[in-house]
Amino acid sequence: MNRREVRLDAVPGLVGLYATALRRQLVARRSRQGEPLELPAVEHAVDGVTADPDRLVAYQRLMGDTVRDTLPSVFVHGMAFPVAMSVLAAEDFPLPLLGMVHLGNEVEHRRAVGAEEELAVRAWAEGLRPHHAGTAFDVVCEASVSGVVVWRGVSTYLAKGVWAGARPERTERAEPSAAARTRTGVWRLGAETGRAYAAVLGDYNPIHLGLLPAKALGLKSHIAHGMFLAGRALAATAPNDGGYRWSIGFEAPVFLPASVQFGVRESGDATLFEGWSAASSRRHFSGSVRPLR
């Protein structure tokens, strides 16, 4: 597909993007009810993206990761995330940004990325498709150094209650039995977890910040960022050098505060991980890490 490029002067601020999205959801999007859904053929791009060294160290410490001068994969995601959000907050994007459900990620971290390297980031949306609870789609982000893609991430989102076509049947995921799980750790996540992640990577989505803003958007309480959970999992499983591919799927939100059981096991060339509720045994997420060949 030929996409029109929108060049950004700088990485946009997420707080401003969320404010823009809220304003447009309350006013402009009402006029789109009943219109066919179609993703814009556009990509947003910005050059000269560099890591803030203090935020990098703060991120590594928040995740319990090794403090080093190469970028963790979720930190790269955080650097690229505002560019992706600028696509979703734009006037021509047909789905509501606030209240979207994050379903999962597929990422290629193609080589170790140095903390001082300058990245060119581009992002676009594709793959609009029906889901039993609404409409799903993908946001693709690429980070390049000197014209070579070093990191590529595909994030899948769900706009609940908005249908692009017929509603498909719900497919239930199989829950592993408790006996099949091997616990390797316990994450005790306080009520401030979402605010701590936002302070490092700037993602101040209201559903992660506190009880009242989360309730205003239809949740019973605030929840942990999906990418916080991914970052914690990768801190325990991803290699610190070389390329790798990782994925994560989110199944149930982690309402804060929470105690999350975490398990890791090896399967062939893959390291598999999952997290589940200490109270109910319901799985919150599962994923894998594999070396790139």
TrEMBL record:
Transmembrane segments: none annotated. Belongs to the enoyl-CoA hydratase/isomerase family. It comes from the Bacteria. Residues 192-273 form the MaoC-like domain. This is MaoC/PaaZ C-terminal domain-containing protein. InterPro entries: HotDog_dom_sf (IPR029069), MaoC-like_dom (IPR002539). It holds the Pfam family MaoC_dehydratas. It comes from Arthrobacter halodurans.
